[in-house]
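Re-run with default settings, no changes from the original entry. Doing this only to confirm the output is reproducible before filing.
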Amino acid sequence: MYTEYFINYLKYEKRYSAHTISAYAADLEQFGIYLNSQGLDWATAELKDLRAWVIGMMADTEARSINRKLSTLRSFYKFLNREGHLSSNPTLLMKALKVSKKLPEVVQEDKICALLDSENVFTDDFSGLRDKTVLEILFGTGMRLAELLGLKESDIDQYNKTVKVMGKRSKERIVPLNETLYQIICRYLEKKKAQNFEIDSVFLIVTDEGKSASPQFIYKLVRKYLELITKADKRSPHVLRHTFATSMLNKGADLNAIKEILGHASLAATQIYTHNSVERLKSIYKQAHPKA
């Protein structure tokens, strides 16, 4: 019952995405199962019970994932306290686990540019142009996977050469399109129209059958092409987002401008990319300075 109230709050008041709500629900279900196994419920759970649950996960769960689950529980209990459903809150004194800072994984800028500019990688049919468009958009705008999937043809402003992106918590932002990306999108739209799909999808990116693309479809597509240029374990759409931000910063873009383009809520989330730039500067220094 409590979890249902909370999920409805996230869905209708906070307007979180379906993916985020699913993650919250899974975390709550996991802790709920643990409480039942201990003969407890949300109202009787104490700090020691929360600590025992965390300790039980530490053997096979990363600290970052555990901290996310703790964040879910903090939000959940805070909501229940505020709404008057519960007076106790075992999360108040629970500290997050220490997490080592991990730099965002990126693709080398020259390699991704060579891939996108190659005349031999993408086929000259609808599928090939669609694949190229997906990669160009992800690398050219830094948008998230969910944002790409939510793009509609009407979101492309061909007069101003911009795209309207619906970000987290239904927050809209306008992202500029470079000339190359704009021309590719225009070509793709023409090719898409010429397909005469039976399904007239309003979404920009569609499958070979004209259906709206799924997250799995985009993941598979991106991985297929990134495997041509990198051996890194992570070859996901988010890697291209990281690559976009790092490339912009390396070229001297203002951090606040990058924040706005990425749709970050705070500058702190964008600042992680400065670490990648520092590492690049160190590498250049070691190569160039006579006493390095």
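The first strand starts at residue 156 and ends at 157. The longest helix spans residues 267-288.
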